[in-house]
Every structure is written in C-alpha cells, then in structure tokens.
Amino acid sequence: MATSQTGPYTTRELSVRTLPDFERFFWQVNGCACALYLFGRHLSPAETLGDQGRRFTGKDWRAGELAAVAKLVREGIAHGILVYADGEPVGWCHFGRADEVPVPRDDSIPQRMFARDPSSDWRITCLLTRIDHRRRGVAGTALAAAVAAIKKRGGGWIEATPAAFPHRDPMLTKLRRAHGWRSPEIAAYLRDHWPTKDIPGIGRVNGCAVTTKTMDHTGMLSMYEKLGFKPTALDEFTGDQRRPWIHVVVRLKV
C-alpha cells in the first residue's frame, strides 16, 4: 500500500489495512465516517445494529455507521485519504465515483447527495481535520492526495462543492445566545453585516460562518483553486436559507 510524504504529513489511502486508523480517527472527531455521502443519508443504530425496540446512545450510532462503512471498504466501494502526523491519523478526505456513491441509487435519496453535473466522473465530498491540527495544512494535503489517487485510477472530471470563503464573526455567536438563531435581530444582523464576494462568471456569494472549532466540511474554494479547480456554478442544494449561495460547484479534469 502506497504511503506519500508531504511536508510534515504522510498520507495513505483507505483500505482494509488502514481501516483501524480510519475507525480511530472518526471516534476522535465524533463524525459519521462519511456514511452520509456513502449511503446518501445518516443511518440509524437500529438499521445497522438491529433491535428496533432498544434505546441507542450517540456512541451506538457512531459504531453502527462505522460498521456499515467498514463493510463498503471491504467491498472496495468506500475510498478516501488519511493524513498522518507522527503516525497518528489527524485528517481525512472522502472521494468516490459519481456513478457508485451514494450506494442506493433510487428516489429515496435526496438529489443533493448526487453529482451536480452529469458528466462528472468523481466527487470529493468531505474534508475533516482533528481539532488540534486545524489550520496547519492538513486538509490541503488530504485534498491533493485525493486528486492524485483519482488520477491513478484513470482520472476524469472531478466535482466538489466547497464553501466560497470563510467568515469568523464572534458577534454573531453572542447575538444568537442572546436572541436565538431565528430571531428578527439575527435576521437584521445578517442582512446588514454579512460579507459577500463576487465570483466571475458565477455571481455573488455569501461567506460561510466558521469558528475556532468549526469549519465547513466541504472545504473552502481557495483550497481547490490552488489545485486547478474552476468554479462553474452556484450550488443550489447547499447553504443556509438565511444565507443562501454560500457554496459553489468546482470541477477539474485529471
């Protein structure tokens, strides 16, 4: 199994051999192990662990989703990149064939879970970094390794839907605590103070709210542009109804 070195980090592809590292990483970040993108929705513990009458904890839910994803790894359907620092998994990037995931290909899966462009061959859907390694280039390393892995598999058109640009606003957090998320005060603040940016050929987009602990898991547009991705459209399926058009569709052919 290939291991790549990029600066202080090494990367390895998701496989049966790296599955223990994958599971350890997602227990640390309390994530869904990309079950959302692999299955087109979150899975309930009852679906994955049985016993419909039992009450399940959040730990049960994560264990069930991890088990379901592990099965796809063994079947060769789940793909991704793990980023390591000093031998510990600290980052993740999910990618998959547009005609392969989500696994159910029926009307029960929301349209937003499928590729935006019918000519896209691959999708990059999720980037996660362990909180103690954020803003250190982990996500960029994972993204570059994912593009390289796709190229190794024959390449084609890659699609992703990153947020346009980040915006950190401590005042918004304070106002939400004081007035509530959907209050008139919040609506007025967003209308009068939220930043926007014009992307040539696409239009005006809004910033994506981030804090020191949270970041949009699709990544930011600038990360993709460094690798040659080009914005092609606004993403009508993602974003907050109070701040629409915070994501864009980007594509790259490799």
Structure notes:
This protein folds into 2 domains: 3-160, Gcn5-related N-acetyltransferase (GNAT) (Aminopeptidase); 166-253, no CATH class. Helix content is 31%, strand content 25%. It contains 8 helices and 12 strands. Strands 1-2-3-4-5-6-12-11 form an 8-stranded mixed beta sheet, with helices on both faces. A two-stranded parallel ribbon has the order 7-10. It has a two-stranded antiparallel ribbon with strand order 8-9. A hairpin with a 2-residue loop joins strand 1 (3-6) and strand 2 (9-13). Helix 6 runs antiparallel to helix 7 (184-193). The longest helix has 17 residues, at 58-74. The mean pLDDT is 88.
How would you concisely characterize the structure shown here?
With 254 residues, this protein is α+β, with helices and mostly antiparallel strands. It has eight helices and twelve strands. The radius of gyration is 19 Å and the shape is globular.
Alpha carbon gyration radius:
19 Å
- Supply the CATH superfamily name of the largest domain: Gcn5-related N-acetyltransferase (GNAT)
Average pLDDT for all residues: 88
- What's the total number of strands? 12
> Low-confidence parts, pLDDT < 50 over ≥5 residues?
none
Instruction: Supply the CATH class of the largest domain.
Output: Alpha Beta
The CATH topology of the largest domain comes to Aminopeptidase
Global structural class:
alpha+beta
Strand order of the main beta sheet, please?
A: 1-2-3-4-5-6-12-11
Overall structural domain count: 2
Portion in beta strands? 15-25%
Beginning-to-end CA distance, first to last residue: 22 Å
Shape: globular
In terms of quaternary structure, what is this? single chain
| Count of DSSP H/I helices | 8
CATH architecture of the largest domain: 3-Layer(aba) Sandwich
Helix content: 25-40%
**Largest sheet at a glance?**
8 strands, mixed
Listing every helix as H and every strand as E from the N terminus to the C terminus, the arrangement reads: EEHHHHEEEHEEHHEEEHEE
